[in-house]
Amino acid sequence: xxxxxxxxxxxxxxxxxxxxxxxxxxxxxxxxxxxxxxxxxxxxxxxxxxxxxxxxxxxxxxxxxxxxxxxxxxxxxxxxxxxxxxxxxxxxxxxxxxxxxxxxxxxxxxxxxxxxxxxxxxxxxxxxxxxxxxxxxxxxxxxxxxxxxxxxxxxxxxxxxxxxxxxxxxxxxxxxxxxxxxxxxxxxxxxxxxxxxxxxxxxxxxxxxxxxxxxxxxxxxxxxxxxxxxxxxxxxxxxxxxxxxxxxxxxxxxxxxxxxxxxxxxxxxxxxxxxxxxxxxxxxxxxxxxxxxxxxxxxxxxxxxxxxxxxxxxxxxxxxxxxxxxxxxxxxxxxxxxxxxxxxxxxxxxxxxxxxxxxxxxxxxxxxxxxxxxxxxxxxxxxxxxxxxxxxxxxxxxxxxxxxxxxxxxxxxxxxxxxxxxxxxxxxxxxxxxxxxxxxxxxxxxxxxxxxxxxxxxxxxxxxxxxxxxxxxxxxxxxxxxxxxxxxxxxxxxxxxxxxxxxxxxxxxxxxxxxxxxxxxxxxxxxxxxxxxxxxxxxxxxxxxxxxxxxxxxxxxxxxxxxxxxxxxxxxxxxxxxxxxxxxxxxxxxxxxxxxxx
Length: 598
Known about the structure:
Layout: E1 3-9, H1 13-23, E2 30-36, E3 41-47, H2 50-59, E4 66-72, E5 87-89, E6 92-100, H3 103-112, H4 125-134, H5 140-148, E7 153-161, E8 167-173, E9 178-181, E10 185-189, E11 201-203, E12 210-213, E13 218-222, E14 225-228, E15 232-233, H6 249-266, H7 270-273, E16 283-288, H8 290-307, E17 311-315, H9 316-319, E18 330-336, H10 342-353, E19 357-362, H11 368-372, E20 375-378, H12 391-411, H13 416-437, H14 440-450, E21 455-460, H15 464-479, E22 482-487, E23 505-509, H16 515-527, E24 532-536, E25 551-553, H17 562-580
Parallel strand pairs: 16-17, 16-18, 18-19, 19-20, 21-22, 21-23, 23-24, 24-25
Antiparallel strand pairs: 1-4, 1-10, 2-3, 2-4, 5-6, 6-7, 7-8, 8-12, 9-10, 9-11, 11-15, 12-13, 13-14
Helix pairs in contact: 3-4, 4-5, 6-12, 6-13, 8-12, 8-15, 12-13, 13-17, 14-17, 15-17
């Protein structure tokens, strides 16, 4: 989950710091750099946000043309300067993204050899191992390879070794890594987003390929042999990403959804989706984590309702550990915004070993999951900087909806006129969404009232249960208010015990086939004196007395696209509640954007 970057370039610290700024969404517990300056590795680290590191560097400026940097999301050891990366031993400094599972055994062995450790991290064993083998007169490449052979777990490493050759090495196992050659130097990073605008050529290393970067060359090292790297053209266009006039990236990304949906409704990718033979499928399994899992839950309802396909959804971190039953003609879909989610990637490899058809639904076309799946559909959300996902979620839903339309066509489960209506409903999406966003001031009033509570209960029915779950997740992610969500019919099967005047209940209640059922659940909550907040159709006011700051009105919405529209008020509610409480909505505590460790 950490972000790593390295550069061999004139004034290498500048592209490293710029890259760390773009990688800070991967972790902001601490940061640090190591730079080769005057034939000596100098390491500077700071606790907290990247600005703290920049402040330290402004007081002790250093120059060099070989530099590595790291922004940390803590796994082993507290978030402090001692545990911050890079970790250094002798002439070796290392930045690491991943987890070394056998670090305790390695640490004990190194201590027996006379090594002394400063940090509580798993990562510090790596420079000690490399330095140990260098002391045995091994070459730099041999020392790194010997050390790597001792490691169990996942890693992407940047290794800086002091010496006349000024070498920077990069290697990975199960964690993302990209190598780049630009006009002004050579770079390695855990994410292509960190690369500079001159990075015209990129290379995605395979596991345990050792890459050497210096001022003269970028080489793929295999033992004592050097092989030329074959680059691909970099379609990734590095843009200046800013908040513009918005208060946060999250707010900007919420309002960007209208234009994104307009593009998706205009750009017809139906031909792309027809590459999947839905007609002969016996089952679809959708694997995801967090927000992506709730998108999968909605997709399940669409595929089953409109195409009559059996759909199972699974949490990526659990899938391969429960011995799932694989059947003939099964398609397994893997959903990940980053395309690097470690649990989802591991589940993909498990499914491939079982000879399943695999499909990646990702926001990064060159990501690990995209490269390894049989088919890849991109969601076209663009860079999402806010840690709490918003526009990626709606774009995932949009692509799933279009896939469901294609499946409905192929399987002819519903009439052609109904399939056409589903497509027409999709065309209406961005315009209805724009109407909802124009009422954002109404949501600010609700958020002001909700911010007075420490807990909240979210309710929905049918496909909107997943939207209630996503709404609860967003609220707790960025406001730290404890929130849980249930299918409304489950209220009386346990959660109703929580209801009193201190437990607000938020209900998604648009007009649909389940509205009457939902009304009885609302009345059950109201009878227990629970503060009530409704996101729904105005007709519900005929049955329940609500104040202005307790009701957010939705326009008339076709039932098929209700889940995509209904999540917008949820996102706004979380955003405004967190802002009222003074929270950092873009970088919530303990969270990172891309979960690249198990």
